[in-house]
Design a protein that fits this description.
alpha+beta; four-stranded antiparallel β-sheet; two-stranded antiparallel sheet; 3 helices; globular
Length: 163
């Protein structure tokens, strides 16, 4: 199955990575998704605002439309919002681990306890990477190309390859 990247227009094999911007779903290659996530991570987020409450704004009283890029969700309406305020932060801390990250960490510990390794490959350059006894930490970037590895759902990956 061949797909075409919405950003760079390159054709690639596989289903691609779905990004939802302004309610429109678009397919991106791993490299363009990585660039897009870096761009959105630098933008001002509604989650930093004191009026943010579970995907809606309490000040204007409407639901916010998220930008979904891979496993990340961004609320970037703060870039144009006149009511943005960080005085009463009510949102979640960004440093908190998600359920997927907690599950992946627990599964890596199980691999270590069993003395096993799992080899996977960078989605940007194809470099072989290991997780388990030889590499106890989940890598966020590829040591070879510095590509972002957060697009990989490690919990699901480990479950599929290590029952």
């Amino acid at each position: 199955m061949r797909s075409e990247c919405y950003s760079c227009k390159k054709s690639f094999s596989g289903s691609g990575l779905i990004v939802s911007i302004n309610g429109k779903e678009q397919t991106y290659c791993a490299d363009c998704l990585w660039k897009l996530q870096k761009e959105y991570a630098q933008k001002k987020s509604c989650e930093e605002c004191g009026y943010f409450d579970e995907e809606s704004c309490r000040k204007i009283g409407k639901a916010l439309v998220p930008v979904k890029a891979g496993f990340n969700i961004y609320f970037v309406d703060a870039e144009t919002c006149r009511n943005f305020s960080t005085e009463q932060k009510m949102g979640k801390k960004k440093n908190e681990l998600t359920e997927e990250q907690k599950e992946a960490t627990a599964l890596v510990k199980k691999l270590q306890e069993k003395g096993q390794n799992l080899t996977y490959y960078c989605c940007h350059c194809g470099a072989p990477l290991k997780i388990g006894i030889k590499s106890p930490e989940i890598q966020k970037t590829c040591p070879r190309c510095q590509g972002d590895l957060e697009v990989i759902n490690f919990a699901k990956f480990i479950k599929q390859h290590n029952p």
